[in-house]
């Protein structure tokens, strides 16, 4: 879900008012879906051992529209839990690396439990389904 503030920032980039930012991807532990009016304060960021946001890279040229959807993927990112306990994460989010703008995110289809010493690999994606 692209939140209102993120949509506004991207429109400013498209119209040349702002330079394109890079995006960090992170994980969250709150179970509520992100909605358009949310801010970063609406989610609870993960905090398990060695957790840190990862700057995305390798974004592909968007493809589409396929059934009205445009899509772009970035290179995979890995989050490793070096803590002594399993960590449950419910979804991912994007935040601007330099401007700190919360762009939004989404829930996973089901919660992911990252075991102590384990990791999870995420493929960052942007989807645009607006008409």
Would you kindly provide a written description of the structure presented here, covering whatever features stand out?
It is built from one helix and nine strands, in the order αβββββββββ. The mean pLDDT is 89. Helix content is 8%, strand content 40%. The chain is mainly beta. It has one domain. The strands form three sheets. Strands 2-1-6-7 form a four-stranded antiparallel sheet. A three-stranded antiparallel sheet has the order 3-4-9, with no helix packed on it. The two termini are 15 Å apart.
Mind sketching the topology for me?
Blueprint: H1 4-14, E1 23-28, E2 54-55, E3 63-66, E4 69-73, E5 77-80, E6 87-96, E7 102-114, E8 119-122, E9 125-128
Antiparallel strand pairs: 1-2, 1-6, 3-4, 4-9, 5-8, 6-7
Could you provide a short overview of the structure?
The chain is built from one helix and nine strands; from the N terminus they run H-E-E-E-E-E-E-E-E-E.
């Amino acid at each position: 879900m692209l939140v209102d503030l993120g949509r506004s920032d991207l429109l400013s980039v498209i119209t040349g008012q702002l330079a394109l930012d890079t995006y960090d991807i992170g994980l969250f532990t709150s179970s509520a879906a992100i909605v358009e009016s949310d801010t970063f304060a609406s989610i609870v960021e993960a905090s398990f051992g060695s957790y840190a946001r990862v700057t995305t890279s390798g974004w592909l040229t968007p493809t589409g529209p396929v059934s009205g959807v445009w899509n772009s993927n970035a290179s995979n990112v890995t989050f490793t839990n070096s803590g002594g306990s399993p960590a449950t994460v419910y979804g991912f989010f994007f935040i601007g690396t330099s401007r700190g703008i919360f762009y939004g995110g989404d829930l996973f289809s089901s919660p992911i439990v990252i075991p102590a010493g384990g990791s999870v690999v995420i493929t960052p994606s942007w989807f645009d389904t607006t008409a």
